[in-house]
Amino acid sequence: SGHNFEIIIIDDGSPDGTQEIAKQLEKIYGSDKILLRPRARKLGLGTAYIHGMKHATGNFIVIMDADLSHHPKFIPEFIRKQKEGNFDIVSGTRYKGNGGVYGWDLKRKLISRGANFITQVLLRPGASDLTGSFRLYRKEVLQKLMEKCVSKGYVFQMEMIVRARQLGYTVGEVPISFVDRVYGESKLGGNEIVSFLKGLLTLFATT
C-alpha cells in the first residue's frame, strides 16, 4: 500500500470465530503487523477503542469491523480524503453519493434509517451517517473524544461525531458500500436498540 501500518484486532468473545482467524493471520504476517488484543467478554465499543488505542503507534487510526462488512478497499479513499481537506475525522457514509447497504432485510434497513433520521432531526450533527463505525481519526483527536464520550454500545458512534462538532473538529465523508456479514451473527438486538434510544435522548438533553 505504500503506507506503514499495523492491524490491531480487538475481540470481545464474539461468536463469529474472529480470534481464531486473527491468530492464523498473526502467524502468516507476523506479530508486528497483526496485533491480537482480545478481551474475555463484551465490554462495549467505547472501551474497545480505548483498549486498541493503547497499542496504536501511528498518527492516524482507522476503525472498522473485522467481518468484511467494511471493505478495506475504501481505506485509500479515506486517506486521500483526509489529505485533501486535512480533516480530523473521515467517516464512511452509507447515505450519501454512491454509498449503500447490501444484504440487510427490510427490518434492519428501517432500524438503521430510522435511527439516523431521528438523530439528524434531534442533533443536527452535520454528517450524513451517524451510526456507522468505519472511520479514520487523528490519534490525538480520538483520544480527546474518548475523554468526552460517555456512551456505550451502538450510541457511542453517534456521540463521537456530535462531540467532534462541539469541539470544532472537522469531519469529511467518503461514500462506502456496507455489505452484511457472510459468516457469524450480528450482535444487534432489542437491548441495543433500547440503549440507543436512551443514549440519543441523553445526548439531545446534554448537547
From TrEMBL:
Ranges that cross the membrane: none
Keywords: Endoplasmic reticulum, Glycosyltransferase, Magnesium, Manganese, Metal-binding, Transferase
Pathway(s) annotated for this protein in UniProt: Protein modification; protein glycosylation
Cellular component, GO annotation: endoplasmic reticulum membrane
Enzyme Commission no: 2.4.1.83
Enzyme type, top EC level: transferase
Domain annotation Glycosyltransferase 2-like: ranges: 4-145
Signal peptide location: none
Reaction(s) this enzyme catalyzes, per UniProt: a di-trans,poly-cis-dolichyl phosphate + GDP-alpha-D-mannose = a di-trans,poly-cis-dolichyl beta-D-mannosyl phosphate + GDP
A GO term, aspect molecular function: metal ion binding
GO BP: dolichol-linked oligosaccharide biosynthetic process; GPI anchor biosynthetic process; protein O-linked glycosylation via mannose
Cofactor requirements of the protein: Mn(2+); Ca(2+); Mg(2+)
Domain of life: Eukaryota
Compartments where found: Endoplasmic reticulum
Subunit structure: Component of the dolichol-phosphate mannose (DPM) synthase complex.
Task performed by this protein: Transfers mannose from GDP-mannose to dolichol monophosphate to form dolichol phosphate mannose (Dol-P-Man) which is the mannosyl donor in pathways leading to N-glycosylation, glycosyl phosphatidylinositol membrane anchoring, and O-mannosylation of proteins; catalytic subunit of the dolichol-phosphate mannose (DPM) synthase complex.
Family: Belongs to the glycosyltransferase 2 family.
Listed name of the protein: Dolichol-phosphate mannosyltransferase subunit 1
